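Can anyone check this?
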Amino acid sequence: MINVPLSKSTSIISPRLTVLVNTMDSEGKLSSSPYSWIFPLSFNPPLIGVGVGKNKQSHKNAEKTGEFVICVVSPSFGQEAINCEKLHKPGDKLWEKNNLHLQKSEKVQVPRIKESHSILECKTKKILEYNGDHIILVGEIVCAQTQETIDQVDPLLHLSGEKFRRIGKQITLQRNK
C-alpha cells in the first residue's frame, strides 16, 4: 500500500458528480455555484446532501429560503458551469455572464439552469454543521426530471483540481439481496 497525504485522501473516492446548486436570497437574487461534494442520503424520503463551504452564499440562501435546485452539469456546458465558481458579490449573475439561461422550476421558486439535462428540486431539511470547513446541506427532493433516461445521463465527473472526466463503459454486477 502507498500512503496518501491526508490533504489528498478525499481524492480516493473520486470522481464525483459535478452540479450547479441554485439558491435565491430573500430579495430574489439567484446564486448558481458549482459543487462536487454531493451524495444521496435516503431513498424514502428521497434526501440528498451537498457539502458546501461554511461561508458560501448557497448555504445562507438555502437556509433562509428553504429551497435549492441541483442542476447536473454535463460536458456540453462544463466550462461555463465551472466558471460560476469565480469569487463574486451576491447578485453578480455569474450564470448569465457565462452564457447560461434560467428556466422556471416545477415545485420550488428557485429557477433551474436550462442547459442542465437533469434536475433535482429540493426543500431544505437540515443544515449539518460539524468541526470542518464545510456544512452539509440536506434537501428533500420534491421534483426530479431528466431529458434522457436515467441510463443515458452524461454527467461531468470531478476528479480533483482542474481534472474532470466522463462516465466510461457500463458494467452490470449481480447483487445478493
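Reply from J.R.: I decoded it. Residues 57-65 form the longest helix (9 residues).
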